[in-house]
Amino acid sequence: MFSNIRSLIFKLDPETAHNLAIKSLKLNFIPNMPDENKDDPLFRTELFGNKIENPIGMAAGFDKNAEVYNSLFKLGFGFVEVGTITPLKQYGNPKPRVFRLVEDEALINRLGFNNLGAEKIINKINANKKIGILGINIGPNRDTVDRTKDYLKGLSIFHQAADYITINISSPNTENLRKFHDQEQLNILLKSIEKEKQNLNSEIPIVIKVSPDIVDAEIDEISQVLLSNNVKGIIISNTSDSTRESLVNIQKHQKGGLSGKPINNKSTVLINKFYKLLKGKIKIIGVGGVDSGVSAYEKFAAGANYIQLYTGMVFRGPNVVSMIKKELKELLLKDGVKNFSEIIGKKTNTKLY
């Protein structure tokens, strides 16, 4: 069905199309998706102590205001991450700020943490009981004078509602946010977060979302900081503000973060580098270009324990999870495994590594 209407949807401005998708999910206009592999033992796993039906999650950015996470669970996602949410409401950057690169199967966005603000969103979550594992992605307001304080406020507001909280230090659309990749600044931030968790008497798992544009020296430094702090997971990675060389769409030079197929290899290589340093002590959520069984397989083989997607659903449609599972199952059965986790970090592709 999606293939029949995709051309119509793609005639709309990308942000308008996204808002339409959110409204459709809120009104249950999207029918139940057929999934012949629902609850298949091949895909069962746990996320921070919670059992989930499959390791495929919705990445932050789709459901910024926590409006449709239960509808996304019904589409088959094993877990859903909402946000990024800032303490105060903010509009984000001027429009147009989302660009669809059809030939490249990619998006470029410079949204800038547009959201309704933490207080309004926590009220939405409290009024709409989650039916699956919910991650909440938090960040600072653009004009805040103390970004660490903003992260701590987000933690304080959401720690009881979330199954895990993601600290977003990697959006390219908030000026200087990526300075938190600095070893010393990241260490100070994580120690402040751990202290706030103790003040709140909270055991909420903390996840860090990193940029795909970091260099090898930063990978080593970030790994050291994560291993020396009480961090449970790392999301690899966010959108890229580079990686434009192979793009063909005329809008390829738009400022913002690139997502989708063009950053698939880049994020997969990065996952493998972190995997070798973290040695299974911190869970890895692989993001970037996941849109098929093959791309999912590559992420797991590189070392990801879970995967997330967003742009993949834009191009493949709302049935993307069941399609990925069907394609992935064929690959896993060829390997003779009983659960996907058996391939995590086990195979390498010389083209990638």
Task: Describe the protein in words.
The chain is of the alpha/beta class. It has a single domain (about 1-345), classed as TIM Barrel. It is about 35% helix and about 15% strand. The protein has 11 helices and 13 strands. The strands form 3 sheets. The chain has an 8-stranded parallel barrel with strand order 3-4-7-8-9-10-12-13. A 3-stranded antiparallel beta sheet has the order 5-6-11. It has a two-stranded antiparallel ribbon with strand order 1-2. The radius of gyration is 19 Å and the shape is globular.
Describe, in short, the structure shown.
This protein has 353 residues and is α/β, with parallel strands linked by helices. The chain has helices at residues 2-9, 14-26, 69-74, 118-127, 147-158, 183-200, 216-227, 264-278, 293-302, 311-316, 320-335, and strands at residues 45-47, 50-52, 56-58, 79-85, 98-101, 106-109, 133-138, 164-168, 206-210, 233-236, 257-260, 283-287, 306-309. It has a single domain, classed as Aldolase class I (TIM Barrel), CATH 3.20.20.70.
Q: What is the topological layout?
A:
Elements (H helix, E strand, L loop, with lengths): L1 H8 L4 H13 L18 E3 L2 E3 L3 E3 L10 H6 L4 E7 L12 E4 L4 E4 L8 H10 L5 E6 L8 H12 L5 E5 L14 H18 L5 E5 L5 H12 L5 E4 L20 E4 L3 H15 L4 E5 L5 H10 L3 E4 L1 H6 L3 H16 L18
Parallel strand pairs: 3-4, 3-13, 4-7, 7-8, 8-9, 9-10, 10-12, 12-13
Antiparallel strand pairs: 1-2, 5-6, 6-11
Helix pairs in contact: 5-6, 6-7, 7-8, 8-9, 9-11
